[in-house]
Amino acid sequence: MVQAKETRVAQWGASLGVRLPKEIADSVGIKNKSMVRVEIKYGCIQVIPVKEQPCHMQIPTGKVSCTLS
Questions:
Q1: Which one of 2, 6, 37, 57 is CB 3.0 to 4.6 Å from 23, fit for a cystine?
Q2: Cα separation values, 69 from 7, 31, 51, 54, Å
């Protein structure tokens, strides 16, 4: 498993973006369009994969609700 790798920060609109090396993304199950949580902890930026929740649509009202497992 790849533990660390250098990558470059790039401008993406008004934000900054970081490309995740494929080996690192694969090792934690991050794919294209995966949801991640970005947080600062102990002065470091952490990118944490978010487990996708099953969503159910209530047809009569059109509201979307997600259930936590």
A1: 2
A2: 35, 21, 10, 8
pTM attached to this predicted model:
0.63
Q: Which residues of 11-28 are buried (b: 16+ CB within 10 A; e: fewer)?
A: eeeeeeeeeeeeebbeee
pLDDT tens column, 13-50: 999 999 999 999 999 899 999 999 999 999 999 999 99
